[in-house]
């Protein structure tokens, strides 16, 4: 009997050890993925200083006109740009030289649910703001999850210059974990939240660490190892049967849980305390669906009323209204994204970080002037 028990104990110890080793190796491998969420948990990389200017950061160059000069809109945006707050020394990578500060993954950060994920391609956002962008929108994620991602990001990389927040995650179930459980492998904060919300899942993942990777997000991370992750705009138009279904649907009310309201307030207050500009951008709804929401305008009036002073609110709910620009009731397609960005430009572009050296370049051209 003792020998049998000893054999069982040895087998369990071997399986447990293999589980820990393989899970650790897989976690390290996936950390190299181009998937946007891994950018939070990779260490910041030292940035190269411009020649002759040790310790300074090279700013992104704005798109130029066909004549090679920065556009007047970008120059106007540069006039309103404030310097970025200094990054706390605690977020610098160990061993980084004094003249090569740690470089976080983004100047512009996007948070929200799938409407943030699919409506803010980083390529378009970088062109409009003249800064590196990172989209942390997560499908089905309530605002409480966005708050966890925000805290993890600033803890590791410091605050970005600009936070673009799509706020409609406040209507999502605050107990829904979405794709968060895999990130618990990298984040004690998220691990604690998973334990709070689903103790059975947490216990299974800790008993067998490989269970943490038993989900669809792991496949996306693997895909990100093989090729660079692309923008996540949607392709296609809302089908006719869905339009008829929406037209026949009953009216409903928009509601939000208090936990999501508190998380929204926490994100914004934290961002402002770090010197980050905050833009709350409400993206488009399919007009037929919006018409079924009895408190559509009242709900967003309440949302705006809850926001603290200093937040830029861009209400683009009706900025796109053609059926062919929508993928479904809540998401616009790639053509809709282009139309939305054209509508956002006057309000969003001035919040970016276009370099002020564009002024000198433009003013040096005969016949040009700024106002």
UniProtKB/TrEMBL annotation:
InterPro entries: SGNH_hydro_sf
Tagged with keyword DNA-binding: no
Signal sequence residues: 1-19
Region of interest called Disordered, as start-end residue ranges on this chain: 44-71
Entry keywords, A to Z: Signal
Coiled coil: none
Protein name: SGNH hydrolase-type esterase domain-containing protein
């Amino acid at each position: 009997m003792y020998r049998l028990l000893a054999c069982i104990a040895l087998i369990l110890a071997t399986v447990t050890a293999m589980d820990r080793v393989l899970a650790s190796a897989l976690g390290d491998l996936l950390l190299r993925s181009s998937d946007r969420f891994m950018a939070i948990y990779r260490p910041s990389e030292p940035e190269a200083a411009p020649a002759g200017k040790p310790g300074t950061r090279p700013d992104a160059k704005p798109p130029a006109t066909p004549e090679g000069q920065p556009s007047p809109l970008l120059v106007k945006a540069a006039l309103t740009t404030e310097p970025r707050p200094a990054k706390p020394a605690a977020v610098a990578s160990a061993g980084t030289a004094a003249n090569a500060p740690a470089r976080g993954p983004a100047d512009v950060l996007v948070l929200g649910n799938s409407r943030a994920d699919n409506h803010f391609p980083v390529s378009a956002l970088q062109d409009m703001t003249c800064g590196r962008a990172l989209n942390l929108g997560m499908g089905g994620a309530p605002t409480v999850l966005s708050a966890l991602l925000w805290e993890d990001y600033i803890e590791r990389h410091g605050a970005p210059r600009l936070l673009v927040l799509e706020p409609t995650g406040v209507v999502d179930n605050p107990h829904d974990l979405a794709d968060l459980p895999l990130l618990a492998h990298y984040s004690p904060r998220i691990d604690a939240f998973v334990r709070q919300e689903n103790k059975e899942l947490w216990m299974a993942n800790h008993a067998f660490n490989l269970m943490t990777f038993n989900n669809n997000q792991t496949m996306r991370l693997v895909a990100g190892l093989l090729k660079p992750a692309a923008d996540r705009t949607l392709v296609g138009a809302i089908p006719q049967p869905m339009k008829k279904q929406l037209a026949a649907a009953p009216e409903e009310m928009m509601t939000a849980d208090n936990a999501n309201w508190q998380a929204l307030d926490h994100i914004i207050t934290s961002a402002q305390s770090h010197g980050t500009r905050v833009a709350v951008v409400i993206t488009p709804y399919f007009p037929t669906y919006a018409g079924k929401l009895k408190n559509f305008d009242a709900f967003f009036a309440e949302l705006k009323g809850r926001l603290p002073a200093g937040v830029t609110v861009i209400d683009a709910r009706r900025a796109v209204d053609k059926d062919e620009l929508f993928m479904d009731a809540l998401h616009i397609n790639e053509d809709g994204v282009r139309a939305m960005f054209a509508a956002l430009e006057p309000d969003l572009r001035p919040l970016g970080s276009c370099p002020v050296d564009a002024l000198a370049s433009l003013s040096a051209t005969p016949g040009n002037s700024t106002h």
